[in-house]
Amino acid sequence: MGITSVLGSSALLPAGLGFRNALINGDFRVNQRVFSSTTNNGAYGFDRWRIDASGGTTTYSAQTFTPGNAISGQEPTNYARVVTTGQSNTNGTYSLFRQPIEDVRTFAGQTVTVSFWAKASSGTPKVSIELEQNFGSGGSASIIQYAGQVTLSTSWQKFTLTTIIPSISGKTIGTNSHLLFTFILSGGPDWNTRSSSIGIQSNTFDFWGVQLEQNYQATPFEQRPFAVELQLCQRYYEKSYDIGTAPGTATDSGFILAMPGGAQASSSGIHDAYINFKVTKRTAASMTIYDNAGNSNKCRRTAVGSANYDNQSIQDVSGYTNGCYFRSATGSGSTHTVSCHYVASAEF
Predict the structure, then answer these.
(1) What's the sign of the alpha-carbon dihedral 162, 114, 102, 95?
(2) Can you give the pTM of this predicted structure?
(3) Exposure class string for 306-340: b at 16+ Cβ within 10 A, else e
(4) N or C: less crowded end of the chain, CB within 10 Å?
(5) What class, spelled out in words, does domain 256-345 have in CATH?
(6) What is the per-residue pLDDT across 180-207, written as a single tens digit (0 to 9) for each?
């Protein structure tokens, strides 16, 4: 029985009831990549949030609130900014800010409410919100639910939209199924058709406090403890580096000793190594291994005794849901231990 069935069909869920928000990192506190700005299509910046764009330039950047900001009743620290410029009114042109939510079953057939704070740099641009039920590889065709459209101003405002996510009865669910939450910021004619004529827009769009909950009306933004939000993010992206250190930085801080699996016979120092993840991943992780100097696909090999050899090649890297295996290639000295930094990604 769903929560709203227990409390009544028109109940407002209690603000203290945890895990109301199906979106992760809606307040943009977690930034494991330590990104500042990107224009790459499909790039993740703040954890769990990415831009998808075609035509013109779409820039996604990290911003910081000043104390005493205009978010009523809150004192947030970070917000996301997406800037769209130079797009033409042609099919296949779009600027999207979005998050895939694991499992297409999420809220299927239920009434949901979207709430968020947003503003623009100038004028009164429109933002459309779309929910796409993607049934994954081998599954049924996607179902797109247009949730609605809002008009921004140059001041922070809170917006809410309520819609019903379609039932998935009779549908086939494949691998990597998900519910895709999307802010549509700009789009050509083909996107106009599906997003209430959002049109081509050049503007700056700022977002904070994004929430998607099963309810008939919005509840206050759920600020989960940072450690909890970080673990939710680590199901999709995890690193060995300290939280504020960008992957690829030259540092010993957070440098880990990979579990030794034993040297290969007659291998001139080749050694197996294993890493256990902090959090089980959504799917087998894509891995990047670094040595302490920030060289990718390299590791440190420590010879019997005390000698360290950095910038040592690795081979046979395999990521799983619970950990990673790799092998140090032939290198200097007889290997006793293997150390490294790592990044594990299981994003959609």
Answers:
(1) positive
(2) 0.92
(3) eeebeebebeebebbeebbbbbbbebebbbbbbbb
(4) N
(5) mainly beta
(6) 999 999 999 999 888 778 999 999 999 9
